[in-house]
Amino acid sequence: MSWLFGSSKPESAPAAAAPTESAPAEKPKPCCVCKTEKTARDDCMLFSKTDDPTQECKSMIDQYKACMAGYGFKV
Fold first, then answer.
1. Which pLDDT tens digit goes with each residue over 32-45?
2. Which helix (H) or strand (E) holds 36?
3. How is the chain split into domains, by residue range?
4. For residues 51-70, average pLDDT
5. What pLDDT score does 75 carry?
6. Which residues are documented as binding site for Cu cation?
7. CA–CA distance, 10 with 72 (Å, rounded to integer)
8. How many CA atoms does the CB half-sphere of 20 hold within 13 Å?
9. Is the distance from CB of 31 to CB of 22 less than 8 angstroms?
10. Binding site residues, as ranges?
């Protein structure tokens, strides 16, 4: 029916979808990685009963920093 409308060019919609396939190779956002470590660190800091929660939660803070460093983020 393309002769009826005067256009015999194929549609270029599939070519437009190609650039979106390379997007997952980009670096993830800091908010989207290490969620369990971040939650554990935040809970420890927020609900700590000591005067210095940083000292009490040091191991969880270090785990979070190590996880973020694995994704290339410096915390």
1. 999 999 999 999 99
2. helix 35-46
3. 27-75
4. 97
5. 87
6. 31-32
7. 43
8. 5
9. no
10. 31-32
